[in-house]
Design goal:
This protein is an alpha/beta fold. It has three domains: 3-110 and 119-310; 325-474, Reverse transcriptase/Diguanylate cyclase domain (Alpha-Beta Plaits), CATH 3.30.70.270; 511-524 and 553-724, TIM Barrel (Alpha-Beta Barrel), CATH 3.20.20.450. Helix content is 56%, strand content 12%. It has 28 helices and 16 strands. Strands 8-9-11-12-13-14-15-16 form an eight-stranded mixed barrel, surrounded by five helices. Strand 8 and strand 9 (520-531) form a beta hairpin. Helix 1 (3-24) packs antiparallel against helix 2, helix 5 (121-150) packs parallel to helix 11 (261-274) and helix 7 packs antiparallel against helix 8. It is elongated. The structure holds ligand C2E and magnesium ion (2 copies).
Length: 748
């Protein structure tokens, strides 16, 4: 518990004990009662003004209730004979208290927000059973109050005896409330303690045959304690939220709800006891027995229902109410057990996940994402019907277990995802086309769930690596491909860990030239992997895998260090100063320490930061802040940032705004057009835009002299491509770049 909370608890306890001690001693009793009565009027008002609770009405009710009780007490202090006025004020306070408690129980508006889990018939019964128990005990209490009120003519019964059953029922309802709530907060706990003290005070008073507490009576100890507890509850900061619907309707756990029935079970016995000698009119014994029996039976049924729903939950996904992995396993066993043994297929298992689900979560929030999952689950369940089982195995991954009569996964998923889904956010409804990637496999009598899911997963994986939004059936070939990729990933891991048996990374350098005269201005470092068995691998063969396995940033770092070291070596051999352009992949962009790595590589090589160009590319699902801060810090040091492959994606313009771009590298596909077309309006527009922003334009993939000429005519300043040179080994690059004839394009 934090220090301020501990101090708070200690201070409250100290004030309470002092007041109880002062009220216990006869000489100081009346002044203390007066002091507390005044405090009970003032403090809640101060609490309301300072903490501004929402909703306000319940606290106004608390203040009014305390006001009535304090006024009654002060009236008695001023005039001990003013019993009628004191009685009226006390009863007014009681009416307000009952109204307050009733309003708390009636507030059942559900806080909007998270999707509502589907309630089964058993759960609906559980809720009704709780209400029946409350109804039965309240009815018993009311019957006893009515019977006692009707018997007030009997001299053995005082009017105060009417209050006793009310107190018992209210106290037990409050105990139920406290037992079944997780988050009462300090103010809530103090309010409950205060209400229980009030009920106890009343009950004891009733036993003594008094209608209200007198200022000089021993019971005044309990009265002051109760009044003080209310006052303390009103000054706690948590008073601001104690009556909010979200807290009042906080979903209770099954065990807490069951526990909450225990105080209610006490009511028939307690009412029977206080309905006895001198404490009011007792109802016929069968009334108590039948309510006690009803409460007992409902509590047992409720317990059984709670156990059943917890058993059901063990096999069910709480969000979508679809089967979870355990439920799937049971359905799988049942499918195989019910199928004829033979070589033929006995069903299919299909593993699917939603494409770009993360995008939905990021754009519309997790609650909307959850609603989409529920909607997908509902559509899948109604499409599959009795011809299989739908399970959610986690995140946005679903499993379909299909009987032989069910449609193929292809048809089924096509039907389910043909219509867009409607994403509901607090502000609007967005129709959203959703696509899925899925892999499936046939089941046979001897199939195992784990292996079948693994096969379906291989098929799903192969769909994802070839562009998503498709359904594939598992084949052995797919498994070999996946295993091949996994073994390459394993080799890559060994290579980066320094293993000598996994080959080595090599760099090639492709000249970046001035288009006007063909002068080499710098080069782009391009990585290759000399694999011991597979030969020289191009980046496309392993960089994607490296990204998947979290190894790509380390490759980029090794390339950066080696490329800068190479530039330093060339510097020692020639006076000509070129720049070095190095590519950064997705993982490097996500690395918050990117600038530190680049800085230390620059420091190790002694290369001036202005001679380093970092090439970034746009990536799907990259957070908009990725790399922004590190690249800005590097740009401030003089490092250049180039936007690679510009023109193939659709968010490139956003990248120009977000990053400190100094060069646009026009993608080969745009340059390709100039083979057949003399002009390109798009290219002209890009050059114009770059000119306005002070950004250099470099064209990639120039393969012919015609393209070169046309690019020059469009105003493109720099270029790269086979027309000048392919990526070269370091010595061949140096031989070309640093020879006196390097300006002649044909030299390459
Ligand atoms: P990129 O950065 O756009 O590099 C240019 C690619 O185009 C290189 O392919 C280069 O060989 C190729 N190219 C250059 N001129 C021509 C041409 O005239 N015609 C054609 N058809 N192609 C040309 P490469 O070396 O296979 O690299 C492919 C991609 O791999 C690079 O595209 C870059 O995105 C990535 N890459 C290469 N090295 C690294 C690295 O160290 N780190 C990271 N993260 N990515 C790298
Ligand atoms: Mg590049
Ligand atoms: Mg490129």
């Amino acid at each position: 518990m934090p220090l301020h909370r501990r101090l708070d608890v200690r201070l409250t306890a100290a004030v309470l004990l002092t007041v109880v001690a002062l009220t216990s001693a006869a000489p100081t009793r009346v002044p203390t009662v007066v002091l507390v009565a005044v405090a009970a009027v003032v403090v809640p008002v101060v609490g309301i003004v300072v903490h501004r609770p929402r909703p306000l009405l319940p606290w106004l009710a608390v203040a009014a209730m305390l006001g009535f009780w304090a006024a009654g007490m002060l009236d008695l202090v001023a005039d001990p004979g003013a019993e009628l006025a004191a009685s009226a004020l006390t009863q007014c306070g009681l009416v307000v208290a009952i109204g307050l408690i009733a309003s708390i129980f009636v507030r059942r508006r559900r806080a909007a927000g998270a999707p509502r889990p589907q309630r089964t018939r058993a759960e609906a019964f559980g809720r009704r059973a709780d209400q029946y128990v409350v109804g039965a005990v309240v009815a018993l209490g009311v019957a006893q109050v009515v019977a006692t009120a009707a018997s007030l003519g009997d001299p053995t019964h005082t009017w105060a005896a009417v209050v006793a059953p009310v107190d018992v029922v209210l106290a037990c309802l409050l105990l139920r409330f406290a037992a079944s709530r997780h988050h009462l907060g300090a103010s809530g706990a103090l309010l409950i303690a205060a209400a229980l003290s009030t009920a106890l005070c009343d009950a004891l008073g009733t036993m003594d045959g008094v209608r209200f507490v007198l200022p000089d009576d021993g019971l005044a100890v309990l009265w002051t304690a109760a009044a003080l507890l209310y006052a303390c509850a009103a000054v706690q900061p948590s008073m601001a939220v104690v009556f909010t619907p979200a807290l009042l309707q906080h979903r209770r756990s099954e065990s807490a709800r069951l526990l909450g029935l225990a105080p209610l079970a006490l009511i028939p016995g307690a009412l029977y006891a206080i309905g006895g000698a001198g404490l009011g009119q007792r109802l016929p014994t069968w009334a108590y027995l039948s309510v006690a029996a009803l409460v007992g039976v409902l509590a047992v049924l409720r317990g059984a229902q709670a156990v059943r729903s917890s058993e059901r939950r063990a096999t069910q996904d709480p969000l979508t109410s679809l089967a979870n992995r355990r439920g799937l396993s049971q359905a799988f066993d049942a499918l195989l057990a019910g199928s004829a043994s033979g070589p033929g297929p006995v069903g299919r298992v299909c593993l699917m996940d939603l494409d770009h689900f993360k995008h939905v979560n990021d754009t519309f929030g997790h609650e909307t994402g959850d609603r989409l999952l529920v909607a997908v689950g509902t559509r899948l369940r109604s499409a599959v019907g009795a011809r299989g089982t739908v399970a959610r195995s986690g995140g946005d991954e679903f499993v379909l277990l299909l009987t032989p009569g069910a449609p193929s996964p292809d048809e089924l998923l096509h039907a389910v995802f043909r219509e867009p889904f409607v994403l509901e956010t607090p502000l609007a409804r967005h129709p959203q086309a959703v696509t899925v990637s899925a892999g499936w496999t046939e089941l046979h009598a001897a199939s195992q769930l784990t292996e079948s899911l693994a096969d379906a997963d291989v098929a799903l994986y192969s769909v994802k690596t070839t562009g998503r939004a498709a359904v594939a059936c598992f084949s052995q070939r797919m498994r070999e491909d996946v295993l091949g990729r996994l073994s390459i990933a394993e080799d890559l891991r060994r290579l980066l860990a320094g293993g000598t048996d996994a080959g080595s990374l090599e760099l090639r350098y492709q000249p970046l030239v001035a288009l006007a005269d063909g002068a080499v201005l710098g080069c782009e470092a391009l990585v290759r992997w000399r694999h011991p068995e597979r030969g020289l691998l191009a980046p496309d063969a392993f960089l994607g895998l490296a990204e998947e396995h979290g190894l790509a940033a380390r490759i980029d770092e090794q390339v950066l260090i080696a490329a800068l070291a190479q530039l330093a070596t060339w510097d020692r051999a020639s006076s000509r100063r070129l720049f070095m352009s190095v590519n950064l992949g997705r993982s490097s962009m996500l690395d918050p320490g990117l600038d530190d790595r680049v800085r230390s590589a620059l420091a190790a090589s002694g290369i001036d930061p202005t001679r380093l160009h970092l090439e970034i590319t746009e990536h799907e699902e990259l957070p908009s802040t990725a790399g922004v801060a590190p690249l800005s810090r590097l740009a401030a040091m003089g490092v250049h940032v180039s936007l690679d492959d510009f023109g193939v994606g659709y968010t490139s313009l956003e990248y120009v705004r977000r990053y400190p771009i100094s060069t646009l590298k026009i993608d080969r596909s745009l340059v390709e057009e100039l083979r057949h077309e003399e002009t390109s309006d798009l290219l002209r527009g890009v050059v114009l835009m770059a000119g306005c922003l002070g950004i250099t334009v470099l064209a990639e993939g120039i393969e012919t002299a015609v393209q070169h000429e046309r690019l020059l005519a469009h105003g493109v300043e720099q270029g790269q491509g086979y027309a000048f040179a392919p990526p070269l080994e370091h010595d061949r690059f140096a031989a070309r770049a640093f020879t006196p004839t390097q300006r002649a394009l044909a030299a390459f």
